[in-house]
Amino acid sequence: EGDIMFMQAVSAPALDKDMKIAPTCKLDDGKLFVSWMTPKIRCGLIEEFDNIEDGKHLKSKRWTEVVAKSLYVEIPDPLSKVVLDGESCENNVPFHVESL
Questions:
Q1: Radius of gyration of the chain (CA)
Q2: What is the DSSP code string of 23-68?
Q3: What does the pLDDT read at residue 69?
Q4: What is the pTM of this model?
Q5: 12: Cβ–Cβ under 8 A, 6 or more apart, which residues?
Q6: C-beta separation of 10 from 23 below 8 A
Q7: Interacting residues of 11 by C-beta distance below 8 A, sequence separation 6+
Q8: What is the pLDDT of residues 3-19, one digit of tens each?
Q9: How far apart are CA 10 and CA 58, in angstroms?
C-alpha cells in the first residue's frame, strides 16, 4: 500500500515495432530517455498502459520526462517494493544506469 510510481529509462525509441515508448529517443545518441508518473490510485497506472504502448503517454500532464546521460535511483523507504525489468530488487539497493 502507499504511493506508487512508474518509471521507464530507455535508450531506444521502441521496444518493438508497435510499442513506441519514447518516440523522440535515438538509439545511437548516448542518452537515456527517462519518464515517470505517480498515479493517484493504482488503477490510474493500468489505464496508462494503452497510452504507453503508442507513445501518447508523453502528451499527458501526468508524465514527467527528461533526457539524461545517467540515472541513479535510491529507495528511501525500506518497505518499498521495487521491480526492475520484471525482477524484484532485494533489499532495495540503490542502482545506477549509465548510457555509454
A1: 14
A2: TT--TTSS-EEEEEE--SSHHHHHHHHHHHHTTGGGGSTTEEEEEE
A3: 93
A4: 0.76
A5: 22, 25, 27
A6: no
A7: 25, 27, 31, 32, 33, 99
A8: 778 888 888 888 887 77
A9: 14
